[in-house]
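User: Please fill in residues for this 97-position structure.
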């Protein structure tokens, strides 16, 4: 048995597979949006912030807030994400790797 099989590694990494298929950037963007939506929801729950209150803080509608919190909606702008982070006392941090 090879060292790779003993360590549980067969073939290429998932990241390499996505890159080879031309899907890496798209999948990374979707995953990032889902994580941010999840984090916002968690922070809102921790701070007992209702959707009505969060929408008020963002000076937007509940429908727009629902789009922001929808992990499958990728049409949210960086400005909106930044304002949402500030509304819960956090900062949005992004980086190029």
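Assistant: Residues filled in for all 97 positions:
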């Amino acid at each position: 048995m090879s060292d790779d099989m003993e360590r549980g590694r067969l073939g290429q990494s998932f990241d390499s597979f996505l890159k080879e298929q031309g899907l890496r950037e798209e999948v990374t963007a979707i995953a990032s949006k889902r994580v941010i939506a999840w984090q916002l929801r968690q922070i809102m729950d921790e701070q007992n912030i209702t959707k009505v209150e969060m929408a008020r803080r963002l000076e937007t509608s509940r429908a727009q807030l629902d789009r922001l919190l929808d992990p499958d909606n990728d049409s949210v702008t960086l400005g909106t994400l930044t304002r949402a982070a500030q509304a819960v006392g956090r900062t949005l941090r992004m980086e190029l790797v």
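For context: The chain has one domain: 13-87.
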